[in-house]
Amino acid sequence: MICHGDIITSRLTLLYPPDTYRIPHTTYHIPHIPHTTYHIPRIPYTHTVQVSFGSGSVACDGTGVVISITFNSNIGDLATMTTDVAALTGTAAVAEATKGGTTQNFEKQTLTCTATSGTFQLTFRGQTTASIAYDASASGVETALEALSTVGDVDVTFGAGAVACDGTGVAIAVTFKTELGDVSTISYVITALQGGAGTITVAETQKGDKDNVICSEKGICDAATGFCKCFNGYGSSNHDASSGTTRDCGKVNPMIGFIAPELF
Ligand SMILES: [Ca+2]
Ligand SMILES: [Ca+2]
Fold first, then answer.
1. Cα of 156 to ligand 2 centre, how many Å?
2. Which ligand has its closest atom nearest to the C-alpha of 151?
3. Comparing C-alpha atoms, which of 70, 63, 14, 67 is closest to residue 42?
């Protein structure tokens, strides 16, 4: 069993970019898959960090060096590190610079349409919608966007009212549910909007920061089908940690099985 051998060789620490995984003394299933694509589930107390100095190239000096430590693979608000300076001529202090978060966000863009007649079009990633009436419903705008080959699933809501545009401006919130990460900004065509006098503005109200990686790093992409073959414990998601139809291995399912005792 190839995977079995890897674990023995690496003495409980598996190196696989971009993270280092350390297997704890607990029960996890090791998938039986080829060495070159071996991966194991992300485990809460797995650690890799990035370290940088605020200045210079040494960790300490007579005036104080800021050592920034970013926890790349630990999720959430972590306990503050402690220091042992018994063997140091000097002092060390620790402060939390940025609190770790547990959620990632879909991109949300808000268009404000001000017009009382005519039509407009929206463009995303080079594809442009059919004409959308100034008084289209939220579902009408959503359907127009989802007809684009560059858009999978978006949610569209209005800040007020039931029409896309009015004389004082309607906020049209577009949330990208399948285009992950920081996506490009929607642009628009307004030459037919209120005889060219209508306006649309666009603002990114939530930058998307959901990861967009092959099979959520929890499976193998089958190039022939374009679908993921997920490791045990992972399945299809809705891109938001719940069950869905996207075969991306982004849903955590109950773990089954255990590591053979001889591995420890
Ligand atoms: Ca939708
Ligand atoms: Ca963006």
1. 16
2. 1
3. 14
